[in-house]
TrEMBL record:
InterPro entries given in the database record: Dimeric_a/b-barrel, Sec-metab_biosynth-assoc, YCII
Protein name, entry field: Uncharacterized protein YciI
Protein source organism: Labrys wisconsinensis
Protein family according to the UniProt entry: Belongs to the YciI family.
Annotated ranges, domain YCII-related: 1-87
Amino acid sequence: MQFVILCQDKPDSLDLRLRVRPEHLDYLHAQGDALMAAGPFLDGEERPIGSMLIVDVASEAEAKALADGDPYAKAGLFAATQIRRWRWGVKPPKA
């Protein structure tokens, strides 16, 4: 099952995001095939202000565990996190 994980950073948290970023990237790379895509949301000045991950896991509980295990989440970066069931409808990546 595919899920989108939407994360909104707390205000004025860019320093925390940048400090934890190496651990966050290591964590994402360790997810293997479960991670389909990931990247930051940007403000008008191209600064990251949140994250979006698309994951392919067995259940919403597994998606939540993946989100909760992210070093960004553990560091308290996010003001809000949403997990939504999702299906790739148009222009899926080539296998």
